[in-house]
Amino acid sequence: MVKYMNETLKQIQQFHGHLGPYAVIGFRMGKIANEKLGSDPFCKKAVVWTGTKPPLSCIVDGIQMSSGCTLGKGNLTVKDEGVPKAHFSTKDGKQFKIRLKNLIQNEIDTTVTEENIINYSECLFEKSDTELFDFY
Protein backbone atom coordinates (compact mmCIF):
# COMPACT_ATOMS: atom_id res chain seq x y z
CA MET A 1 0.00 0.00 0.00
CA VAL A 2 1.34 3.43 -0.96
CA LYS A 3 1.22 5.90 1.92
CA TYR A 4 1.85 9.11 -0.01
CA MET A 5 1.41 10.28 -3.56
CA ASN A 6 4.71 10.37 -5.45
CA GLU A 7 5.60 13.20 -7.83
CA THR A 8 4.61 11.33 -10.99
CA LEU A 9 1.16 10.61 -9.59
CA LYS A 10 0.81 14.28 -8.62
CA GLN A 11 1.68 15.24 -12.21
CA ILE A 12 -0.92 12.79 -13.59
CA GLN A 13 -3.48 14.26 -11.20
CA GLN A 14 -2.62 17.82 -12.26
CA PHE A 15 -2.68 17.02 -16.00
CA HIS A 16 -5.88 14.98 -15.92
CA GLY A 17 -7.76 16.89 -13.22
CA HIS A 18 -7.94 14.03 -10.73
CA LEU A 19 -6.10 10.79 -10.05
CA GLY A 20 -7.89 7.77 -11.42
CA PRO A 21 -6.95 4.27 -12.50
CA TYR A 22 -7.46 4.70 -16.22
CA ALA A 23 -5.28 7.84 -16.37
CA VAL A 24 -2.59 5.83 -14.54
CA ILE A 25 -3.01 2.96 -17.03
CA GLY A 26 -2.61 5.36 -19.97
CA PHE A 27 0.46 6.91 -18.38
CA ARG A 28 2.01 3.47 -17.99
CA MET A 29 1.18 2.58 -21.64
CA GLY A 30 2.90 5.74 -22.88
CA LYS A 31 5.91 5.14 -20.65
CA ILE A 32 6.30 1.66 -22.15
CA ALA A 33 6.04 3.18 -25.64
CA ASN A 34 8.92 5.52 -24.81
CA GLU A 35 11.02 2.62 -23.52
CA LYS A 36 10.37 0.50 -26.62
CA LEU A 37 10.30 3.18 -29.34
CA GLY A 38 12.19 6.18 -27.95
CA SER A 39 11.09 9.30 -26.16
CA ASP A 40 10.96 11.71 -29.12
CA PRO A 41 7.24 12.47 -29.45
CA PHE A 42 7.62 13.47 -33.10
CA CYS A 43 9.00 10.06 -34.11
CA LYS A 44 6.09 7.91 -33.03
CA LYS A 45 2.33 7.75 -33.25
CA ALA A 46 -0.41 6.12 -31.24
CA VAL A 47 -3.82 4.72 -32.02
CA VAL A 48 -6.04 4.19 -29.00
CA TRP A 49 -9.29 2.20 -29.05
CA THR A 50 -10.88 3.60 -25.87
CA GLY A 51 -13.35 5.99 -27.45
CA THR A 52 -14.03 9.40 -25.94
CA LYS A 53 -16.34 8.54 -23.03
CA PRO A 54 -15.00 8.42 -19.47
CA PRO A 55 -13.84 6.61 -17.55
CA LEU A 56 -12.12 4.46 -20.22
CA SER A 57 -11.15 7.51 -22.29
CA CYS A 58 -9.04 8.73 -19.36
CA ILE A 59 -6.39 6.38 -20.79
CA VAL A 60 -5.95 8.94 -23.60
CA ASP A 61 -4.83 11.67 -21.19
CA GLY A 62 -2.30 9.35 -19.59
CA ILE A 63 -0.90 8.37 -22.99
CA GLN A 64 -0.65 12.00 -24.10
CA MET A 65 1.13 12.96 -20.90
CA SER A 66 3.77 10.24 -20.91
CA SER A 67 4.34 9.40 -24.58
CA GLY A 68 4.12 12.88 -26.03
CA CYS A 69 1.74 11.62 -28.72
CA THR A 70 -1.09 14.15 -28.67
CA LEU A 71 -4.25 15.04 -30.50
CA GLY A 72 -2.82 18.50 -31.14
CA LYS A 73 0.31 17.15 -32.86
CA GLY A 74 -1.85 14.81 -34.90
CA ASN A 75 0.12 11.73 -33.91
CA LEU A 76 -2.60 10.30 -31.69
CA THR A 77 -5.85 8.87 -33.03
CA VAL A 78 -8.76 7.74 -30.86
CA LYS A 79 -11.05 5.03 -32.23
CA ASP A 80 -14.50 4.71 -30.68
CA GLU A 81 -14.47 1.03 -29.76
CA GLY A 82 -14.47 1.09 -25.95
CA VAL A 83 -11.42 -1.15 -25.63
CA PRO A 84 -8.43 -0.38 -23.36
CA LYS A 85 -5.73 -0.97 -25.96
CA ALA A 86 -3.24 1.04 -27.97
CA HIS A 87 -0.95 0.56 -30.96
CA PHE A 88 2.29 2.52 -31.00
CA SER A 89 4.53 2.78 -34.07
CA THR A 90 7.43 4.70 -35.55
CA LYS A 91 8.16 5.89 -39.06
CA ASP A 92 10.88 3.26 -39.43
CA GLY A 93 8.45 0.39 -38.82
CA LYS A 94 8.96 -0.40 -35.13
CA GLN A 95 5.66 -1.12 -33.44
CA PHE A 96 3.82 -2.89 -30.67
CA LYS A 97 0.31 -3.27 -29.35
CA ILE A 98 -0.64 -3.17 -25.71
CA ARG A 99 -3.90 -4.04 -23.98
CA LEU A 100 -5.01 -3.81 -20.39
CA LYS A 101 -5.55 -7.28 -18.99
CA ASN A 102 -9.23 -8.20 -18.72
CA LEU A 103 -8.77 -9.12 -15.06
CA ILE A 104 -7.43 -5.65 -14.22
CA GLN A 105 -10.16 -3.89 -16.22
CA ASN A 106 -12.82 -5.93 -14.44
CA GLU A 107 -11.23 -5.13 -11.09
CA ILE A 108 -11.20 -1.40 -11.87
CA ASP A 109 -14.78 -1.41 -13.10
CA THR A 110 -16.15 -3.36 -10.14
CA THR A 111 -14.12 -2.24 -7.12
CA VAL A 112 -13.12 1.39 -7.58
CA THR A 113 -15.27 3.85 -5.64
CA GLU A 114 -15.02 7.53 -4.85
CA GLU A 115 -13.66 6.55 -1.44
CA ASN A 116 -10.84 4.28 -2.67
CA ILE A 117 -9.98 5.72 -6.11
CA ILE A 118 -6.76 7.46 -5.03
CA ASN A 119 -5.41 4.55 -2.99
CA TYR A 120 -6.35 2.09 -5.73
CA SER A 121 -4.67 4.24 -8.39
CA GLU A 122 -1.50 4.47 -6.28
CA CYS A 123 -1.42 0.69 -5.90
CA LEU A 124 -2.07 0.20 -9.62
CA PHE A 125 0.85 2.51 -10.44
CA GLU A 126 3.18 0.18 -8.51
CA LYS A 127 2.21 -3.02 -10.39
CA SER A 128 4.57 -4.51 -12.96
CA ASP A 129 3.97 -4.21 -16.71
CA THR A 130 3.25 -7.91 -16.96
CA GLU A 131 0.65 -7.73 -14.19
CA LEU A 132 -1.21 -4.97 -16.05
CA PHE A 133 -0.81 -5.59 -19.76
CA ASP A 134 -0.83 -8.07 -22.59
CA PHE A 135 1.55 -7.28 -25.46
CA TYR A 136 0.98 -8.46 -29.02
Percentage of residues in DSSP E strands: 15-25%
Helix content: 40-55%
Question: For the report, how would you describe the main beta sheet?
Answer: 5 strands, mixed
Q: Which secondary-structure class do the elements indicate?
A: alpha+beta
What does it look like?
With 136 residues, the protein is α+β, with helices and mostly antiparallel strands. 44% of the residues lie in helices and 17% in strands.
State the gist of this model.
The protein contains six helices and five strands.
Explain the layout of strands and helices.
Elements: H1 7-16, H2 21-37, E1 44-48, H3 58-67, E2 76-78, E3 85-90, E4 95-100, H4 102-111, H5 117-125, H6 129-132, E5 133-135
Parallel strand pairs: 1-2
Antiparallel strand pairs: 1-3, 3-4, 4-5
Features:
single chain, five-stranded mixed beta sheet, 136 residues, 44% helix, 6 helices, alpha+beta
